[in-house]
Amino acid sequence: MRVLFVCLGNICRSPTAEGIFRRKLEERGLAHRVAVDSCGIGPWHVGKAPDTRARQAAARRGIDLSGLRARQLADADFQAFDYLLAMDHDNLAALRERAPKPLEAHLGLFLEFAGLPDTAVPDPYYGGEDGFEAVLDLVERGADGLLDAIAARLETPR
Fold it and tell me: Quick check: is 39 catalytic?
């Protein structure tokens, strides 16, 4: 099983989701069965570490994002991942525009797994530290729901 988190530049929201989801997979004993990555729609930050504020906010919750580096969405991602999860409606629209037809992967908003099917993870980049904390809260909630959905799918024989 492979999960890809997608935001605009891959330095705030999607690496935060990647880090949180990795930790939750480890806690649930599923890290060996689920691969996780993140990327951005645009090329602006390729090769850069997550935003310092995102790293600091995650570190306060015991999540280390320092080893992550931004990358841009690639056409091959649509075939390589089972879940492509957008952080907001614009990211989702960009994914849908680029996605091959037919697409076997699940393509949708990340927070649908938090029971918030039409809700975006707000971009904290131009705001203060409280925005990064709010993103962490939302991502934790979405990650819990996603983990439950994937665990159920892994337990169901095909």
Answer: no
pTM of the model: 0.97
d(CA 22, CA 48): 20
User: What count of other Cβ atoms lies within 10 Å of the Cβ of residue 16?
Assistant: 33
Residue at 105 is within a domain: yes
Q: Which residues of the chain have pLDDT under 50?
A: none
Q: What is the 3-state secondary structure (H, E, C) of 24-60?
A: HHHHHCCCCCCEEEEEECCCCCCCCCCCHHHHHHHHC
Domain count, the chain: 1
Which of these is catalytic: 7, 22, 55, 77? Answer: 7
Catalytic (active site) residue 13: yes
Q: Whole domain around residue 58: which residue ranges?
A: 2-153
